[in-house]
Amino acid sequence: MDDDIVITGLIRQLQAGDDKPLSELMKHYNPRIWPLILAESRSYQDAEDILSRTWQAVWENVGGLRDVSSFGGWLRQIAYNACKRYYNSSYYSQGERPYEDETLEWHINRNAEMLLREEGLKADAIEAVRNLPNKPEDMRKVAILFYLQELTLKEIAEELDLPLGTVKRKLHEARGLLRKEFGVDSKWW
Asked: What pTM does this model have?
């Protein structure tokens, strides 16, 4: 919790035009966005350039961020967009640099491994949600409607005829059990 307060303070300082907190934010968030950038990049060198462009875009646009609690998601979207823009730039659109056979094979194998791992994780998550206990009452139903049927909290409340606060509490309880199931530390969620 204290970590969140510190990060929020750093983001607000950045919004006020102070560039000093940028390095602390980079230390905190780079491990979270680097895998995304690396997965979307064609080379390690490109990924480093995209990471730099991502933080430049953060510096230029952080003033427009209204809800500092959404900084992590906002940053991931900037990183993803930076990858797309990087490869749509005039440098790449004028003539793609062809991959060498070894590099192309490495990318294909890496992408196939990532897809296989994602499918396995997705199947594990679906099974875990379906196997949540029914006690407290309606927790499994709320989790299934939220995670598997992708209903909004309001839709779930209407579907189960429950107050919105109860739906939020049940989802919170389900998340706690799922975190335990997958051995995930709650401070990263």
From this structure: 0.48
| Backbone φ/ψ region at 138: left (φ over 0), alpha (ψ -120 to 50), beta | left
The 10 Å CB-count burial string (b at 16+, else e) for 39-72 is ebbbeeebbeebbebbbebbeeebeebeebeebe
Q: State the pLDDT at residue 129.
A: 75
The dihedral through the CA atoms of 46, 36, 5, 165 has a sign that is positive
CA 9 to chain CA centroid, nearest Å: 21
Q: Stretch 45-65: mean pLDDT, rounded?
A: 89
8-state DSSP, 147: I
- Cα distance between residue 153 and residue 187, in whole Å: 23
